[in-house]
Design goal:
- The chain has 2 domains: 3-74, no CATH class; 90-306, MetI-like (MetI-like fold, Orthogonal Bundle), CATH 1.10.3720.10.
- It is globular.
- The protein is mainly α and 307 residues long.
- The protein starts with a helix and ends with a helix.
- It has helices spanning 3-30, 35-40, 46-56, 62-74, 88-123, 128-142, 145-159, 171-200, 204-211, 216-246, 248-253, 259-268, 272-300, 302-306.
Length: 307
């Protein structure tokens, strides 16, 4: 990536993060519910609630609160949790490894399973294998994740007792959350791979490769698949960012100690600093992944390397 383009992308990324900070700052404060009241309880006196709001800085105007938040955020201070009185940055750092572990394994499983199925489906177009792969992709993108998670818990954990109900620690704890989180991405990858391969297999250079006597395996995986991967890389980058910031339901169902579980607790208690930090983390994840996708394009598409 050239220096000028890199600087432009970094500037755009900064604007995205700034816009995300403004939006989440306003939205969490427009949401019904007062953090001071939730923290003290319904039996708290108005004077006690007022004193706590002053202590938390919630009595100031919204522009003043936002500028104060932005000033501290630029200095690396994301504030202190209203509920636990702990530094928000420490809470995020504690949860990031669990979210990265679950998201990374889910994306890897979707890629390792989805791309071969999509390739085989395109190579056997119109056969039972092709129809089966299309049905699998349809079901994968149609089944609600929370329902699938609850059904797996009921069957594998409660009835068969072969997998743990919830938590994190061993490979067995990863099985059900990984299936739940990766299923939608798996269905999308199958469809994209199949569609991309069907388009590429009809190109002249593929016919030329076959005419030279190359094995069908080499034609499909060396010549066709590399060109079919270009749209898959773009979509996969977006889906990875979505999973990093949006695995709230999966983490809540399986009590996975990641960012999603922290977000649920923060939203319940209107913990403004924690919510703001989580949204900024999600926005930053999208920004970083999009930059990595730009770099990955250079490896997948030789034309971009030539330019």
């Amino acid at each position: 990536m050239k220096a000028g383009r890199l600087l432009r992308r970094l500037a755009e990324s900064g604007l995205v993060l700034l816009g995300a900070s403004v939006i989440v700052f306003m939205l969490v404060r427009l949401t019904p519910g007062d953090p001071a009241t939730l923290l003290l309880g319904e039996i708290a006196t108005p004077d006690a609630v007022r004193e706590l709001r002053v202590a938390l800085g919630l009595d100031r105007s919204l522009p003043v609160q936002y500028l104060k938040f932005l000033e501290h955020a630029l200095a690396g201070d994301l504030g202190t949790s209203i509920r636990s009185q702990r530094p928000v940055l420490d809470m995020i750092v504690e949860r990031i490894p669990a979210t990265l572990e679950l998201t990374g394994i889910a994306v890897l499983a979707a890629v390792l399973i989805g791309i071969p199925i999509g390739v085989l489906s395109s190579a056997r177009r119109g056969t039972v294998l092709d129809e089966g792969s299309l049905l699998l992709s349809l079901l994968a993108q149609s089944i609600p994740g929370f329902w699938l998670g609850l059904m797996m818990i009921s069957f594998f954990a409660v009835q068969l007792r072969v997998l743990p109900v919830a938590g994190r620690g061993t490979w067995a704890h990863l099985v059900m959350p990984t299936i739940t989180l990766s299923l939608y991405v798996l269905g999308m990858i199958i469809r994209l791979t199949r569609a991309g391969m069907l388009d590429v297999l009809g190109q002249e250079y593929v016919s030329a490769a076959r005419a030279r006597g190359l094995p069908e395996f080499a034609v499909i995986f060396k010549h066709a698949l590399m060109n079919a991967l270009i749209p898959i890389v773009a979509v996969l980058g977006l889906q990875t960012g979505t999973l990093l910031g949006g695995a709230v339901v999966t983490e809540a169902v399986f009590q996975w100690p990641g960012i999603g579980g922290l977000a649920v607790v923060a939203l319940t208690h209107r913990d403004y600093p924690v919510i703001q930090a989580i949204v900024l983390f999600s926005a930053a994840s999208f920004v970083v992944i999009n930059l990595l996708v730009d770099v990955a394009y250079r490896f997948v598409d030789p034309r971009l390397r030539t330019e």
